[in-house]
Amino acid sequence: MTGIVKSFFNENLLLPRPVQFVGIQNYCDLLADPMFLNALGRSIIWTLIILVFEMIFGMFFAIVLNANIFAKKLFRCLILIPWIIPNAISGIIWKWFLNESYGMLNYLLRYARIIKRNLPWLSTNELAAISIVCIIIWKNIPFVTITLLAGFQAIPKELYEAAQVDGAGYIKTFLRITLPLLSHIVIIIAILTSIWNFNQLDIIQVVTRGGPGVATLSLPIFIYRLFMDSFQTSYASAAAVIMMIVLTIPTIIYVRKLMKG
To answer: What is the pLDDT of residue 41?
Structure first.
């Protein structure tokens, strides 16, 4: 509530001026601010890309872990490791792993003769953006996998047995039985992970700090910079309110789904 109130004033902790009511001026300035619009657009695009890939990989791993494979329980435990590690620690690990000079990724790629020279994973715009997206996907796959796996476990085996009797193949069974019965879980996962991904701050701040330049500047990082670097509290509050409004839409959908369930 305090942030909403502050967004209608011109408070800046670095400027010794009286705080005045400016109405919606901060919001108008934000909507005309190219950096804010780029950060907002980048956050939305990243959220959609991450959602698609984490669903694909999460579904794949859930199918594998639901099958009768060797050491199934062990793999179910191991896949939780990325989710268990705190975001800041994950960021530190990946920052070391992707380091251009001594990072393990470049070493492995050179050893496999895939590349001839080290790649600047975190110091070029395209590679830094790809790296951040991949890290967040890696971080969220365990949650998606385990949640979908729980959904698989809840599907009655009699349905699959009946499908086999009717001569349905694996793909047809998956499309006609598995996906429809998992649809409500998929929707909830999509909404929850989209909210988390849009709000992602820790990993980006630790790995790239929004750089190089503004290549990985998401909306949360943009707001963080306004608060912590330039102390534009009112302007940052207005940006945070807009982010809250954007996130309200999937939140309402999630609550309605939850109430129906």
So the answer is: 94
Among all chains, which residue has been given the structure tokens 């804010």?
36
Work out the number of other CB atoms within 10 angstroms of the CB of residue 180.
Answer: 9
Look up residue 28 and give its amino acid: C
Diameter over CA atoms, the chain: 79
Cα of 33 vs its chain's centroid, Å: 24
Can the peptide bond before residue 18 be classed as cis, meaning omega within 30 degrees of 0? no
Give the model's pLDDT for residue 99: 92
Closest CA to 204 of 113, 95, 98: 95
Report the C-alpha gap between 251 and 189 in whole angstroms: 12
Q: 65-118: per-residue pLDDT in tens?
A: 988 888 888 888 899 999 999 999 999 999 999 998 889 999 999 999 998 899
**Which two structure tokens, joined as six digits, stand for 136?**
């967040």
Which domains are seen in the chain, by residue range?
Answer: 44-209 (1.10.3720.10)
Structure tokens at 62: 């859930």
Distance CA 240, CA 250 (A): 16
Cβ neighbors of 245 (< 8 A, separation 6 or more) are none
Query: What is the Cα 85 distance to its own chain's centre?
Result: 15
In sequence order, which residues have a C-beta less than 8 Å from that of residue 181 and are 6 or more positions away? 151, 155, 159
Distances (CA, A) of 226 to 27, 197, 240: 14, 20, 10
Cα-flanking dihedrals φ and ψ of residue 21, to 5°?
A: -75, 125
